[in-house]
Structure formats: C-alpha cells, structure tokens
Amino acid sequence: MRQLSATLLAAACYAGAAPAAVMQYGDKDVLGFGSYPTDPVTGATLEGLAPGVSTVGTYGLGGFSHAFPFAPDPDDYAGTDQIYVGSAQSGNEDGYSSYSGRLAGPQVVTLDYGSLVGAGQQVATLTLGIAFDDFQFPNFGEPYSVSINGVADTALTAFANSFNQTGPRVSFGTIGIDPGVLTPDHILVLAIDQGGNGGDGWAVDFLTVGVTTTPVPLPGALVLAVSGLAGLLGWRRRADVGASL
Ligand SMILES: [Ca+2]
Ligand SMILES: [Ca+2]
C-alpha cells in the first residue's frame, strides 16, 4: 500500500523538467542562393514566448538581400523556397508577382512538433519562427493574413505586415502562438495569404517551432484518491507508533 501510495504521490507531485526544444523545418539557404553571413536566428527568441509576443533576428524587419527569382529544390521542405502571391491576384507590385513559377496562395506549411512533447507532458508555450522573404506591406499596402490551424492570428498577421523588405530580402522573426489553437496531434498548420490585389509576392526560407512543456494535470478524482491514501498512511503510521509505545 505504501509503495502504491508513493508512486501515486510521485505522479501527483511530478514537477517535470519543463523541457524546451526547438525544431527547424526547411534549410537556411537564403531561398537556395547559399548561406547567410550571420545565422539569421541570432538575436531572436526561439522558445518560451507568450502569445502575441514577437522578436526579430539579426536582419531586423528589412532583411538580408539576395537574387531572384528562385524555385524550390525537390528535397526542400514543402512550402519553403517557393514564391507565392495572393489567392486572388489581380495586380503586380513586384518582381515575384510576375515570376512564372509563382503559386497562388494560401501558402500552407504543416509543422509536426510531436517529438518535442514528451509522454505525460503538454504544451505550455509554442514559439513559431518564420524566415519571412519579400514581405512589403508597408510599401505596397497589400495586406497579409495569417492563420494557425484555421484560426486567424491577429498578432501574427500584424507581425507579417510589419516587415518592410524593399526588394528580395529575407529576415527571421518569432512569435508566441496561443496554446488554445493547438491540436492534440501536435501538428501546426500555418497558412499565409494576401488580400488587396495579391500582387506583393513572398516566400519563406525556413521555419522553427520551439516548445516548452508542463506535466499533464491529473484528473481531480485521482488527486482526491492520492490525498485519501496519503491521509490513510499517516493515520496508520500514527497508529503503529501508538501501538509500539
Ligand atoms: Ca514582395
Ligand atoms: Ca530554404
């Protein structure tokens, strides 16, 4: 009985290591043109951000300049290194939007972060990192819209619309995602589209997901049972002591 109780108490009181880890999806290859002089995630917070809180890496909101156009390699992560335009394109604001290899939005990227969530753990925070490329809302005024798992994310949308990459430029930023929109399968579906005339083309070089976790709470009934067992053990211990006197 004591051993069982100790096991249950250990489970009930398990604080967990609150592990944190980061996964990268796609390669940091400047949309296929090579390598960055400085790791673009430098200075950005990759894990632990509260919902709506954002950071930018070393290339800021302006980005690192590169050539264009480009197309994904066969082994590129699906959705990366690919030029997109709005789902209802009716104009052309930049070179990307005229490139023959462009795809109509929404850009959908599926990110499985299940390996970051251990058994008995649940997601406490999820930090999404995106290497934004050629996002030019401040210049052209064609608004981006971003959703997570089908739910519009106003903070992430505002973040995407804050990049002012005047030309083919890429920079990395991160933002905290509301855990309430996450799904039990630990698969995040990012969708980026653009309104207006849809003619401000864009791409994503790579992405990251950083997760911190906490133990899954025990059901209330089990907590009560553990408390009851602990009380019973205490009563028996007191009774044993009394009997030995
Ligand atoms: Ca653009
Ligand atoms: Ca890439």
Overall residue-averaged pLDDT value: 87
Total number of strands? 12
Can you give the helix content as a percent range? 10-25%
Shape: globular
Tell me the fraction of residues in β-strands, as a range: 25-35%
What's the assembly state of these chains? single chain
Attribute tags:
245 residues, 20% helix, 6-stranded antiparallel sheet, 12 strands, alpha+beta
What does it look like?
With 245 residues, the protein is α+β, with helices and mostly antiparallel strands. It has one domain. The protein has 4 helices and 12 strands, in the order αβββββββαββαβββα. Strands 1, 2, 3, 7, 10 and 12 form a 6-stranded antiparallel beta sheet that branches. Strand 8 (144-148) and strand 9 (151-152) form a beta hairpin. Helix 1 (2-13) crosses helix 4. It is globular and about 60 Å long. The relative contact order is 0.26. The model is unreliable at 1-17 and 241-245 (pLDDT under 50). The structure holds calcium ion (CA) (2 copies). One calcium ion binds at residues 26-27, 29, 31, 80-81, 205-206. Residues 94, 96, 134, 136, 200-202 line the site of one calcium ion.
